[in-house]
Amino acid sequence: MIDRLPEAERPTPLRPLSKMLSDRVKMIAYRAETALVALLRRHLEKPDDARALIRELFVAAGDIEPDAVTNTLMVRIHRMASPVHDRAIAALVEELTRQEFPHPETGATMRFALV
Question: Which of 35, 37, 45, 80 could make a disulfide contact with 85, Cβ separation 3.0–4.6 Å?
């Protein structure tokens, strides 16, 4: 299929250094996803659903609200498709909030909520 594209429209292969960087970013993202799956599994009746629910969470709608006075960043995630998923995600975001992660650039404490 690619060989049918005009030469100017064909994708160019990544150079080795770019591919190494791309592969490392993918691995870091996969490890972060896996860590969230491990946290979420404790809150689901069917632990095998955790990875699918985390992927759903990654594309869920939400709001981000910085507060310079308290140096916090509130991340509000909109409700999921089912009450069972809502309860599991609510427990996950509560656990993440308790861990008081700092934002990597601003240092603001990140807070999470399901709304």
Answer: 80
